[in-house]
Amino acid sequence: MDDKIAHYMDCVLQVVTLIDQRVLHDMVTELVKLREAGGRLIFIGVGGSASNCSHAANDFRKLCGIDAYSPTDNVSELTARTNDEGWETVFTAWMNTSRTNYKDALFVLSVGGGNIEKNVSANIAHAVSGAKARHMKVFGIVGRDGGHTAKLGDAVLIIPTVDDNLITPLCEAFQAVVWHGLVSHPALQIQEAKWESIQH
Q: What is the mean pLDDT of residues 43-66?
């Protein structure tokens, strides 16, 4: 048996045991309110988390009937704004053009949650501040201390750190575990997933 694989799987089990399910309950409650109010759900993240944002936006649109978006899906706008205006403002500029308001919510998928002082994912930190200035709800699935997202967010799940060498892989993996749990929740899901709808 491979000890490294066994250790990784043991870490997965530890994270499952330690996740604060109360935060997930709060997310479900607030996301139901968002849908009822006709608000939009904007997913932001960078790197691997950006890919997760794209997938999550699809699931919330298709399975839950929530008007969801992932700004990083438009690579032309993303790179134009980065080139012309700077990386730090790509998300806030998108929010400005989209006229986000108090009915909408920001959902951050990020390992660090944004940290302006350390210049790590500063665009996420600016977006969170911008969302709060617009009286938007801020949700998040983040790692370690959660950074700016955890400090200002309304319902932010911090993926427990069980191994300092596995913070990123476990956080990004559990982003998917958590959002799939949300879109499968009976209070949110309005359309059955394809394989579940196929009768044996």
A: 97
Q: What pTM was computed for the model?
A: 0.94
196 occurs within a structural domain? no
Query: Each residue of 161-186: pLDDT tens digit?
Result: 999 999 999 999 999 999 999 999 99
Give exposure, 73-107, as e/b (b: 16+ Cβ within 10 Å). eeeeebeebeeeeeebbbbbbbbeeeebeeebbbb
Count up the domains in the chain and report the number: 1
Q: Which CATH number does the domain housing residue 91 bear?
A: 3.40.50.10490
